[in-house]
Amino acid sequence: MSALIHDIKYGTRQLIRSPGFTVVAIVSLALGIGVNTAIFSLLNAVWMRSLPVPDPHALRVVNWSGHNARLSHYSGGAGDAKRDRTGAMVSGSFPYPVYRDFKERVEGCSGVFAFCELQGLTVVGPKGAATAAAMMVSGDFFEGYGARAALGRTLRPSDESSDAEPVAVITYRWWEKEYDLDPEVIGRMIIVNGHPFTIVGVMPRTYCGPQVGDMAQMYVTMSAQSSLSPDHPLDARDHWWATIMMRLEPEADETQLRAAMEGLFLQTLSVPGQGTQMEDPRIHLVDGSRGLLGMRRQMAMGLAVLMGAVGLVLMIACANLAGLLLARGAARRQELTVRAALGAGRGRLVRQLLTESLVLSLVGAGLGLLAAIWIKAAVLGLIPDSLESFHLDVGIDLRVLLFTLSAAMATSLFFGLLPALRVTRVDLCSGLKSHKTLGVPGLRLGKVLVAAQVGLSVLLLVGAGLLIQTLVNLYRTDLGFSTDRILVFGLNPGQAGYEGDDSVRFYDQIEADIASLPGVRSVALSGDGLLAGRRASNAFSIPRRLQQTDQDLQADVLDVSEAFFQTMGIPLRRGRTFERTDTPSQPGVVIVNEVFARTFFAHEDPVGQLIRMNNKDYRIVGLCGDAKYDRVQREIEPTLYFSHRQARPGAMVFEVRAASDPLALVPAVRRIVADLDRTIPLEQISTQLQLLKASITPERIFTYLCSALALLGVLLSCIGLYGLLAFMVTRRTGEIGVRMALGAAPRDIAWPVMRSALWMAACGLLVGVPVALALTRVLRSVLYGVTPHDPIAIVAAVVLVLSVAALAAWIPARRAAKVDPMEALRYE
């Protein structure tokens, strides 16, 4: 131990004596380890960390799977459907009666609970009306989940009874935002969609729901279903919307438990008249220690790719430092030779040099941990304001600290061992001479390390280039509608008690008042905002094609107003748009897009044709241009536009085309809505351009991060190349002086330096480009409008690398060309 302490003290003194080298090394390591720690902390929060509840490994998420599943009323929810390798549909959404069956008739679990997230609720509190999300849960949710309230109590099974007072539990963030942490909040009344609820509890600040990024601000019992979510009936076995989790008993047999649950599940599927079909239905109990994995899996895939990218950056930093240590070791050759002559064995010298590397790594890791906190905050800052309620706990825990320490230890070996072994291979006779040339083996190894840095940088640059092209393509893609100067906001008068014709009159009045504002060109309504991430689809049939069933034909559907196509700039190709006379008492009408016409009426005019949906006939009265619906990345599907008057609208989205800045209209729009009904808040206010940017947020964040990492990698490579060339010029000062004294021109001195730099860069490119072509396939799923082998990205990376290499070589080459022969010979 005393020898180790001595090595640390001696190594620290040596590093202090070389401040330039030490600062460059520590900054490089801090950046390399910092970005790795930051991304790992995000990956840890999203994928690795268990839920902060007692015994999380006893939790299970209930899923089902089945082939050829036909569900009459499937609402998805937290358990969105997907396909497994066999083609079976897999989902975590169940009819609520199935939860009751599991709870009452399945043994081997200490708790079964169900929940469903509700978005866009109107909540009236002490600071006025606001839009919030809630989790509708079974009464035993908190008991089964294992969470306790910080203030008051949680929900109980008795709160679910029909005669119980409606109660709610709010989150710490909502308590802080709406009640300023008032301890007297318990017992206060809160109005949700026009219905009063009594606050009985506040969850702790550290509380985390079963879904990563849980956006719910409050929890209510399933008994609130009739008032908050009538589309989710509690007694219907053909409505699939509830997510089910359970907590296993210590000695539970999961095989027997799953078999019992499958039997109960089959009973639900066999109920006649439900319109539900499924082949080979199965129940699966998925590890719930990390909660629901759907969103976690999506986020973790991107973070895993980023971990690979930051790993490359750290490898570049290590190769960079290895080259610098080689140069530094050559400069310390006499010192090491003297120590060897005094009896120090090679192992002792290697240990000393590795100790210096370890000191560098530990200091770099400490600063990297601080840098990781800033980097992590910067990454989270890229999340748009529209997701302000998105919550993700990315604190530094023991796993992150161990990762950082492991990274420090590994990097110290990675960049320290090879130089230590190389420079301790001393020859006492030659080493004791005043000798200022770098040996050939060391020079070759330094060049190999620089070429390796260049090759790794090419990987990052090609990947970043592909992502940049993807982002540009997403921004430039033809949306089919205009995003210029359009204000978008939502209203839901149904939450204030408006129904049927009252809702239509409410929307008509708001539309007319907004249209009369100065600077407003036109006003429209739609069931969903374009590019808002939501879409609806439905099955339909063509009556005169009797051989096709409803399930054979599927199309996206959207309810819109008369001015929708004009306001959004969607061209009407043929026929007419909707009219105010298209009321429920009139024959149903529909407008279709061009994809619909090509798909279902390829050889005939769609205008005038009949389609049938939900047992009602609609006549196609117009053909409009194609337009993106929910996401930029998604291909345009066959789309049916219905008149919002005939659909008897619920929540609607307003699109207001302005003459100038659309956000300047917001105060006036707020006054108009408040004058008509103060209990109805404006929801999700934005512009259409902001919705476009928000729809490509994952790609934008991914591109920004990968581009920053690529630039960091190039910068480190540039430093490494510059350091090696500068060292070569310094060590060859005497040789350069002799050549210049013999008549060599400055260009004859500078060109070999430039040539050496370009040669090392070319070697790195020869290896890096083929490897990049092989590895960029992992980005295929996130690319849009560009292939993984895009020549533009590859050529751009090559040009940038060669340019940076030339720039890094320019200063050493210029310095070599300006060497004074007399000074050089005197120095030698």
What does this structure look like?
- The protein is of the alpha+beta class.
- It has 4 domains: 1-49 and 309-435, no CATH class; 56-289, no CATH class; 440-477 and 696-828, no CATH class; 493-679, no CATH class.
- Helix content is 48%, strand content 19%.
- The strands form 4 sheets. Strands 18, 19, 20, 21, 22, 23 and 24 form a 7-stranded mixed β-sheet that branches. The chain has a 6-stranded mixed β-barrel with strand order 6-7-12-9-11-10.
- Mean pLDDT is 84; it is low at 435-441.
- It is a multi-pass membrane protein.
Index terms:
828 residues, single chain, 6-stranded mixed β-barrel, 26 strands, alpha+beta, globular
Q: Termini, distance in Å?
A: 42 Å
Would you tell me the overall average pLDDT? 84
Rg is: 34 Å
Q: Which term fits the overall shape?
A: globular
Summarize the biggest pleated sheet.
7 strands, mixed
Total number of β-strand segments? 26
Main location: membrane
Domain ABC3 transporter permease C-terminal: 309-426, 709-821
Transmembrane segments: 21-47, 299-327, 358-380, 400-424, 445-468, 701-730, 757-779, 791-813
Keywords: Cell membrane, Membrane, Transmembrane, Transmembrane helix
Fold topology:
Layout: H1 2-16, H2 19-48, E1 59-70, E2 73-74, E3 82-83, E4 89-91, E5 93-94, H3 96-105, E6 109-125, E7 128-137, H4 141-145, E8 151-152, E9 167-170, H5 172-179, E10 189-192, E11 195-202, E12 218-221, H6 225-228, E13 239-240, E14 242-248, H7 254-269, E15 277-287, H8 294-331, H9 333-341, H10 346-380, H11 398-423, H12 428-431, H13 440-476, E16 486-491, H14 500-515, E17 520-526, E18 536-539, E19 554-560, H15 564-568, E20 572-575, E21 588-593, H16 594-600, E22 610-613, E23 616-624, E24 639-643, H17 644-647, E25 652-658, H18 666-676, E26 683-687, H19 688-695, H20 697-731, H21 733-741, H22 746-775, H23 791-817, H24 821-827
Parallel strand pairs: 2-13, 7-12, 9-11, 19-24, 21-23
Antiparallel strand pairs: 1-4, 1-14, 1-15, 3-4, 5-14, 6-7, 6-10, 6-14, 8-11, 9-12, 10-11, 16-25, 16-26, 17-25, 18-19, 20-23, 21-24, 22-23
